[in-house]
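Handout, section 4.2: multi-component inputs.
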Amino acid sequence: MAKKQHITLPDGFTAAGVHCGIKSSAKQEDLAIIACEVNASTAILTTSNQLVGAPIEWCRELLPKGHGRIRGVVINSGCANVFTGEQGMEDVEDMAERTGKVLGVASDKVLVASTGLIGQRLPIKKVRTGITKAGKALSTTNDEAAARAILTTDTKTKSAVAKTKIGAKEITVAGIAKGSGMIAPSLATMIAVITTDANITGSALRTAVRNASKTSFNAVSVDSDTSTSDIVVAMASGKSRGKLISSRGAGYKEFSDALQEVCDKLAYAVVADGEGATKVIHVHVKGAASKGDAEAAARSIADSPLVKTAMHGADPNWGRIVVALGKSPAKLDPEQLAVSIGETAVFRGGMGVKLSAAKKQKLVKHLKGKDVEITADLGGGKGNFTVMTCDLSRNYIKINADYST
Amino acid sequence: MAKKQHITLPDGFTAAGVHCGIKSSAKQEDLAIIACEVNASTAILTTSNQLVGAPIEWCRELLPKGHGRIRGVVINSGCANVFTGEQGMEDVEDMAERTGKVLGVASDKVLVASTGLIGQRLPIKKVRTGITKAGKALSTTNDEAAARAILTTDTKTKSAVAKTKIGAKEITVAGIAKGSGMIAPSLATMIAVITTDANITGSALRTAVRNASKTSFNAVSVDSDTSTSDIVVAMASGKSRGKLISSRGAGYKEFSDALQEVCDKLAYAVVADGEGATKVIHVHVKGAASKGDAEAAARSIADSPLVKTAMHGADPNWGRIVVALGKSPAKLDPEQLAVSIGETAVFRGGMGVKLSAAKKQKLVKHLKGKDVEITADLGGGKGNFTVMTCDLSRNYIKINADYST
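Output:
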């Protein structure tokens, strides 16, 4: 028998993933429900893109402060329901209502997320049938089917679990995510659903999710494009029955650490499975005049196509890294700047470091690995920031150019 | 016999392009001199990258206000002389001094530009020999050799000529440029040299070049990376002997228009020959709340890898364009937004426009052409801006990933 694998490990949750026909292949699940047996303390984070899909609008209307009580979330892949006009919002309401019926609650207790093609209407009849089917399949044995059902061009499911003790009580935090570039074939999305049996207030959960995302979901980049459908949903069942956690009270730190671990693992999985990616590039900037400067500098490196192609080719081309730093708005003195790749210093005192054959070999070996570390010390302050990105390969072009809408 | 083709068409200029051994192939010219027979009224624009090569530092020191009187410019390709420490500046001074000797002037009348690999010292002995050789070759019959000598991964030379009348006098503006992505193999550069026989003050020339660049050199993007070596040099011999043009006086408008034409043509040539490019994408944003908003929105589209890959695949994927607009900081109301590709409206009233088969065919035909026009009307003001970029192809990855330093 299949068993609890991740999102139903926290007490109080069930999940289902079914095929309803949005995606053409009958083997591909395309609709998931993750439900809580009580109204879960819930927090959401949504995309920073100015233009958003109808599902995002719905979630923001339900939870205007970003937190509240929710029974479950329904997610479909294959169609993002974005730029679909009034019909798009009617279809979202339809999904929420039907899922509410299945869960025995009103539609305003149901979050909706969609990912996939944009500009096309949902095949709502298929979706309705899928919701009914998923409702019947809800259990603690379908975690992987749910994880599969939210994927687009992702090549694998993404999940993470962390456990911690709050006082004497063990609590579990788990999550699934999809990512994979922003387009697949037309537009994909970063969606993550996190479940926990911690007993935590909605506002504390929101604070914790926002903080954990800063260094995980918000610190990754596949191609610097920001989708109209990005959402992180965190639901807490409270089934661990510990003392209610507030954002300044006992247990918050322990909970946050576990949540951070889950978010970090999911974010890493999203980058590692980025469209065409063959490796993960960790860009660490330290010594910046401010945290903002550090972030700007790190993003300038992580978003540079020249850095990303060099890393793809395992090319120790520190020039591209330094040039990317120079074009960022971060305050920079080349004489103070030190750059290393892996453990090898490559730039210092305004010049490249002369490398022995042995050191060069070590550097290339690092560059050929699955994880590449780039560290830039600006030598001008205490600001630091880390961004994760992936390399840029022919496959990215293939995935994104060879498809015709 | 070869004859004046572009940069020596304006009276008073000679040019040379020679092979001195910086590039390995003996067939490839790698050093150029463009000289004026008098001290030319000269203006420069240099890169916005915070980190710059020694040649850029030299030019800025010679012309701290961006204009002055200069006899000539020496340019080498194959080595950018960037991040080369004090030695780098000594080598620049060496180049300027030797070129000055060849031209019969002091080194402070000679601008220096370099493009190519960064982080490596110039092979200065070869460069010295090259300068002597180029000095002997200076003539009005070597324009194309000079245009070739400044190329890196460019696949063709780039030149432009415009003529105009100022009063009764005909004046000529000509230019050559190199571009081609920012890296080739390690770092390339946008370099342009413009010559004219107009009789214009240095400060007026600088104002004219700065204005012309706003909508040409500064409005193009190949891969959003900014080099440490970018420079535009404009030299006016005054040989047309018209009345001296100041930035508010007679003739300035006519001169500026001719200069704009040359800059526009060179900028187009740079984009069209971008690394791996198969087409030029013209991104027009209008109806923005401000010019700044229009520029931010246009750049967000032009720098989006998803838009660039879609255009490469001739995919009418308006979703990617709208999403790129949404992630820009430009003020945006989706209901007011209208997007068209070529002459075909694709997005309006918050939704995609339903296209007939005939319209779709017309759209795809436009997308398969050499020039693609994207127009986004934000419907919220009078700000407008146009950016030119190229598509993103497998060849870009090939050029930039398959090389190992």
